[in-house]
What we know:
Layout: E1 4-8, H1 17-29, E2 35-39, H2 45-49, H3 61-66, E3 75-76, E4 82-85, H4 94-97, H5 107-118, E5 123-127, H6 134-142, E6 145-151, H7 156-172, E7 180-189, H8 194-207, E8 211-217, H9 220-224, H10 232-235, H11 240-256, H12 267-270
Parallel strand pairs: 1-5, 1-6, 2-4, 2-5, 6-7, 7-8
Antiparallel strand pairs: 3-4
Helix pairs in contact: 1-11, 5-6
Amino acid sequence: MQTHFIAVANQKGGVGKTTTVINLAASLAAQPRKVLLIDLDPQANATSGLGIEKKPGASVYPCLINGLSLKSKIRRTSVRNLDLLPSEMDLCGAEIELPQLENHLTRLRDLINPIRQSGRYDIILCDCPPSLGILTLNALVAADQVLVPSQCEYFALEGLTMLNRLIGQVRDGGANPSLTTLGIVMTMFNNSTRLSHQVVDEVRKHFGSQVFDAVIPRNTRLAEAPSHGKAAIVYDPNGAGTAAYSVLAEEVVGRLGLNSKSAIEPMIGLVEKSA
């Protein structure tokens, strides 16, 4: 069984990247599929957003630097079928130390390959830092595809163009010749403003079928969920944000060529008794 590795990336902060990776992962887990979320952002928002404590030494950092196995770092989350490789502040050190090491661009790929080959997971999602530094490059070299969240604002096109250029450089430079863009998802959409509609139309005009049909709304309950350490599908199962991420998960599965699983696990079966 093939394990699909998707890097969720955008060098701009505040575009809903971590909200997207948490809720996409949880929605895929509810299908149900076995999902691993790698928190590669030193801010560790995906870690705390899933109710996992940020602990020194618990991240991929010592593994990236010293080549240790990742298996002992994997944690169960409170969502059934969803595991997490946590992050913590020490991961900031990787931006300084990794460039000095041999094979510094392929370290994450080399670490994750045994997990992929084990067939333990259907999909691996990686939450990249909001930058184009060495950690993001490691994710792009390790990934099969890139999913790009983009906020509904006027600077969206500029950021998307820059990231597309980097993806092309990683692919054409030989670091990851098979890397492709899975798609662009528009986030923080406000249906009552002309700006949101204009930005979505403009992005669709420039990027065409790369843009997912699912559009993620600006939603209070969606924004509240991480502060409770829960994915939206658990915190607000009937909410508009939850529904949008469920639609996105179906689109992702379709683009990956996986068989659709229409039966979503009920919340009572989705939530584990303990992480």
